[in-house]
Amino acid sequence: MYKFCVGCLCGQTLDESAAARMPRPVKYDRIATKHEQGAPVTERGPYKMRTIARITDFSPALLRAWERRHGLLHPLRGPGGHRLYTEDDLRVLQRVKELIRTGRSIGEIAGVGRDTLLRQSLQSPEADPSEPPPTIEAATPEVRTQLEEQRARIVQAALKMDSGALNRVLDESFARVSPDLVIFEVIEPAAREIGNLWVAGRCSVASEHLATGVFVHRLRKLVESAEPSRSDTRPTIVACFPDEYHQLGALVLAYQLCRNSLRVSFLGAALPFEDLEGACQVVQPAAVLLSVTRQAVFQVHRRSMLDSLARVARETLVYVGGQGAPSEDPLMARTGARLVGPQEDQQEAQRAIVTEIRNSARLKRQE
Question: What is the pTM of this model?
Answer without folding.
Answer: 0.65
